[in-house]
Amino acid sequence: MNKQQSNYQMLASKFGLIYDVANNKIHGIFRNYTVVIYAPDARYPYILSVITGATNGSVIGKDDIKAFRKSIKGITLFKQTGNEIQLNVNCNNINKSTELLAGALNALVDFLTQRGFVPCCSNCGSQVPTVGYVVGGRPQVICENCGQAISRQMAGNTVIESTTVENVPAGIVGALLGSLVGALAIILISQLGYVSVLSGLIMGVCAVKGYELLAKKLSVKGVVISIIIMVVVTFFANRIDWGIEIYKAFGKEYDVSFFECFKSVGEFVREGAIEGYYGNLVLLYLFTLGGGIPTAIGLMKNKQIKNSLVRLSIPTMAPQYSAPVEQPYVQPANTVTPEQPYTQPANSATPEQQSGINKDLF
Description:
The protein has 362 residues and is of the alpha+beta class. The chain has two domains: 3-137 and 308-361, no CATH class; 168-304, no CATH class. Helices cover 52% and strands 15% of the residues. It contains eleven helices and ten strands. The protein has helices at 3-14, 62-71, 94-114, 144-163, 168-191, 197-215, 220-254, 258-263, 265-270, 277-305, 351-355, and strands at residues 18-20, 25-30, 33-38, 47-55, 75-81, 84-90, 118-119, 131-135, 138-142, 309-311. Strand 5 (75-81) and strand 6 form a beta hairpin.
């Protein structure tokens, strides 16, 4: 294990959870709720997202969400999507991660139980035992029945995609049409006086998605064709941009059309009348390819994992549902904060009985 994996393993053991090294996810059962904890962005490994499945047949109010976020240290996101509850906690670094994550987890469970939310499958809403899955690259808390149903659906999608014939000529037309949108972005941004990688992102997405839309299938060949078209269209977009500049400078004075100005760009360049033409073109290519190629590769990777389903390792204990008590939300007394050590509330089960949490955490 590397250092980050070792830290995740330590966090998992502190909370009585499991660290799945292969999928880089912490998961298991915390106080009756199945949770999956992971870093949505690998560049920020200690900004952690916690998801669980819970329902009470209603939607959490905006005021409650706002109050929860303000009352718990480190919370940057708290939202409900159907039966899925998600919060993000900024743990800053490993030295504070245990304390902040403990506070967030305890506060989340207290918040849900006080409002009558019971653990459930985030997909179908059934109040049955659930486990962590990674569905199409996205972690979810679902039941075994939904996991099997999704697996069958993905298998069918894979068969359909494997038998689909790639229509390359139609794909070329789609990539060309998509790249024209990118060319428009290049011209508009340039007319504002900028050269931006944003135009490359737009060019990459539109060209590749245009190819896929009309070709009915995206392959490595399709990505290469799209990139070649991006290069060609970028060249002409740069020419159009300079044609506009020439027209603005001489069009009205000499009564010439934009088309004539566009045709004269090459002559202006040969005569040295346009300073920085090639430098601007190189910069434009760098931004276009710098934005377009990673975008195209990212779309290709997303396509590869779209029909992937991974079941995280089985938790060591099954959830035991207890009847929640509905009452107004207050700041949880047992939330760990930097100023106040954790104490076991009266008339409640010990942390070990609830989730197998390590007493050394507190």
